[in-house]
Amino acid sequence: MGGHPPGRIRLGALLFILVVAGGLYLAVKLVPPYWIYLSMQDPVKEAAMAMATHGDEARARAELIFRAKEQGLALEEENIEINRDGPMLVIRVSWVASVQLPRRRLDIPFQIEERAPAR
């Protein structure tokens, strides 16, 4: 009947539990900013198409800021860049998400760029 005395956890099992717990902690901290990034892809694309069709820059900016707020992201006017690149309209939305980790703050830069043919 070899083995370990009852009630004792083997070191390997303890390390496994610690690694899993650490991974879950990081996932809880890092998934929300990336989820917002993915959730903003469609609004930026829609703003580029609307801007290319209607040419109303103020409306495109306001819609992007509104859609970002729905996702919990506080965008400002300076986070939204609208330019023309030859025959293309380019909308670039950039922001930095701050994640507080133990003893450290992690700033994650995000940028979404969409192009649409200018009319």
Features:
3 helices, three-stranded antiparallel sheet, 119 residues, single chain, alpha+beta
Write the layout of secondary structure elements.
Blueprint: H1 11-39, H2 41-54, H3 57-70, E1 80-85, E2 88-101, E3 104-117
Helix pairs in contact: 2-3
Characterization of this structure:
- The protein is α+β, with helices and mostly antiparallel strands and 119 residues long.
- Helix content is 48%, strand content 29%.
- A 3-stranded antiparallel beta sheet has the order 1-2-3.
- The longest helix has 29 residues.
Mean pLDDT: 88
Provide the succession of SSEs: HHHEEE
Question: What summary fits the major beta sheet?
Answer: 3 strands, antiparallel
The side-by-side strand order for the widest beta sheet comes to 1-2-3
* Structural class category: alpha+beta
Count every helix, treating DSSP H or I runs of 4 or more residues as helices: 3
Radius of gyration: 22 Å
β content, as a range?
25-35%
| Beta strands, count | 3
- pLDDT below 50 for ≥5 consecutive residues: which ranges? none
Q: Please give the share of residues in helix.
A: 40-55%
